[in-house]
Design brief:
235 residues; alpha/beta; Elongation Factor Tu (Ef-tu), domain 3; Rossmann fold; binds flavin-adenine dinucleotide
């Protein structure tokens, strides 16, 4: 489907939010899903070509647009994405993915995000917030530095406004941060989720982080049926 690059904003250090205009075309998705974005031409060489996956960050109630957030890198694709003119026509695939909040499992949810892996959770939380869904959510969000922590203000506002949601931020490498600094491991989870045996865990982020947290949860004796993962392959 051809859509238009409508807007691009810096939302955290080295991180942009991109908005696509669907030009009136219908595009249905559930929070947590993603698409492939193909750029029409690359301004810089890129061995991986002109296509990457991105997770939708807006909620389905926002019609007519799609938003995604990404970390800028030195890849030819990202440099092009950050430089091509607004108004450029780009191509998106059909919506894909099954990483969403299960309706048939009413257990309290523990969301664990590494860096830009926060994007599917932002879409899910916006959607639940809009629908005033009462679901017990704990969100663990790990970044190196506060300035890299995308959507932090919005997540903190949701945390304050919603007694069912609890945000725990860990900044593993920020000299100015007096809060939690540990990486998310078994001890961390036992400390914040004493009822971990009764919870559904969702992990999203770079593959190495997702695998490490998954192994820690398995080490706590959880069933793999209670652990859902989304790997941002490519990081
Ligand atoms: C289901 C799914 C959902 C995803 N959702 C998102 C999302 O919402 N947001 C998001 O940001 N990503 C998402 N990704 C990952 C995304 O598709 C990319 O793979 C990722 O953003 C890395 O792309 P890249 O072009 O920056 O790096 P790649 O070209 O894929 O390279 C990987 C690494 O190599 C380095 N590198 C590449 N080229 C150079 C160069 N010329 N010089 C120096 N270093 C270089 C980059 O720094 C990068 O860290 C998702 C992936 C999957 C599978």
């Amino acid at each position: 489907m051809k859509v238009v690059l409508k807007d691009r904003q810096t939302i955290a250090d080295g991180t942009i939010l991109v908005e696509l205009d669907l030009k009136g075309q219908e595009y249905n998705f559930t929070p947590g899903q993603y698409f492939f974005l193909t750029l029409p031409e690359l301004l810089y060489e890129d061995a991986k070509g002109p296509m990457r996956h991105f997770t939708i960050v807006n909620s389905p109630s926002q019609k007519g647009i799609l938003q995604f957030a990404t970390r800028l890198t030195d890849s030819g694709y990202k440099k092009t994405l950050n430089e091509i003119a607004l108004g450029t026509e780009v191509e998106i695939s059909n919506v894909l993915g099954i990483f969403g909040i299960p309706k048939d499992n009413q257990k309290p949810i523990v969301m664990i995000a590494g860096g830009i892996g926060i994007t599917p959770f932002v879409s899910m939380l916006r959607d639940m917030h809009e629908k005033k869904e009462e679901r017990n959510i704990r969100l663990f969000y790990s970044n190196k530095l506060k300035k890299q922590t995308a959507f932090l203000d919005e997540l903190q506002r949701m945390d304050l406004a919603d007694s069912n949601m609890n945000l725990i931020l860990t900044l593993t490498d920020d000299p100015n941060w007096a809060g939690e600094t540990r990486i998310i491991n078994g001890e961390f989870i036992r400390d914040y989720v004493p009822d971990y045996n009764d919870c559904l865990f969702m992990i999203s982020g770079p593959p190495a982080m997702v695998e490490a947290v998954y192994n820690q949860l398995m080490g706590l004796g959880l069933s793999n049926l209670d652990i859902k993962t989304e790997n941002f392959a490519g990081y």
